[in-house]
Amino acid sequence: MADEKDAQAREALAKIRRFLKARWEEDDPALFTGVIVPPKARSQVAPTRPAGQPAPYHAAPRPPVSADRGSDRWGSSATPADRPAVSYGAPRPASPSGGARPGPAAGPAAGNRVAGPGALAPAAAPGLHESGLINPSASDKGRALLDMYGKTKDCTRCPLGKTRKKYVFGTGNPEAEVVFVGEAPGEQEDLQGFPFVGPAGKLLTTMLEAVGIHRDRVFICNVLKCRPPANRPPELPEIEECEPYLFEQIRTIKPKVIVALGRYAAQSMLQTKKTIGQVKSRWFRIMDADLIATYHPSACLRYPPNKKVVEADLNLLKARLDQLKVRT
Fold it and tell me: In the chain, what are the domains?
């Protein structure tokens, strides 16, 4: 019986890998390399693109949703192509041309304010755009992300698009070599339009500074771009609708290291059902980057002993960044 279950699990993982790889292999065959534990060195195989040409944004097809919501992460035994899809409507263009709406050329965004007790606005940075991107017009990656922001900011693919106050795209440096992935926006994020600006964000900033990592040199985003009502956990159909946006952000930035914060970020990035306790503090290899998972800062606020685990994982992160000669 155990061998049969193991075989089913391997087949399920193989299906999802084929499904994910099919999304990107048309442009970059080497992009999705799967999970390898642990990586001893960064892959020397990297996607190539003509110099000066930005990575285009393609609205990825909506991942199919299993008809059996109570099944495992991959749904039933049916192949992805056989599963029924749920349609919530297509994203509305931000302008008649479909491009991004112009934002301020310099200075903090208009929404970059403290909004309520415990809120922490992102550190003011020259050229902070309304999207949260720092100087998005200064590089090909920044322009590609800005184009993606303009095409997705009015998304209504899932019901959260109708209940959110602000679309939380991500914040930081488009040229970042480190990407932090959280789970979903909270109350303060929904009000301000930036990720990790509430109490958990304040704790994250403090913990990063303790190991010498500055927020303006990394990129921070979430699996979901809209807040679930009452901060409830993300639901599988919402994750499956929003994951293509996350994967597109990562394939555009091409970071050397990814940090998954919390259960849902780790499960999404690694395409696994394992708990955060089963994957934390270990190195994985995915999308041509080294990935480490750890507890979400909010878990440290709820249960303080988790903070020591996150601190240890951030020290592992800093050691890997030093090994890769990443400036933080």
Answer: 32-38+69-103+119-324 (3.40.470.10)
From the list 91, 202, 100, 112, the residue with the least C-alpha distance to 142 is 100
Residue pLDDT, tens place only, 100-142: 333 333 333 333 333 444 444 455 566 899 999 999 999 999 9
pLDDT of residue 70: 32
Q: Measured in Å, how far apart are the chain's first and last C-alpha atoms?
A: 49
Distance, CA of 105 to CA of 126 (rounded, Å) = 9
Q: Residues 28, 254: contact at Cβ < 8 Å?
A: no
- Structure tokens given for 209: 């500074």
Q: Are strands 289-294 and 283-286 parallel, antiparallel or unpaired?
A: antiparallel
Backbone angles phi, psi at 164, to 5 degrees: -70, 160
Please list the alpha-helical segments (H only) found in the chain: 2-24, 140-152, 160-163, 187-192, 199-210, 236-253, 263-270, 276-279, 297-302, 306-324
pLDDT tens digits, 162-173? 999 999 999 999
CA distance linking residue 31 with residue 14, whole number of Å:
17
Range 26-54 burial, b when 16+ CB lie within 10 A, else e: eebeebbbebeeebeebeeeeeeeeeeeb
pLDDT (mean) for 237-251: 95
Burial (CB count within 10 angstroms: exposed 0-12, middle 13-18, buried 19+), residue 96? exposed
- If phi > 0 it is left, if psi is from -120 to 50 it is alpha, else beta; for residue 147 that is alpha
Alpha-carbon distance of 189 to 204, in angstroms, equals 14
Beta strands 219-222; 171-172: pairing state: antiparallel
Task: Answer whether 133's CB lies under 8 Å from 123's CB.
Answer: no
pTM of the model: 0.68
How many other CB atoms are there within 10 angstroms of residue 224's CB atom? 27
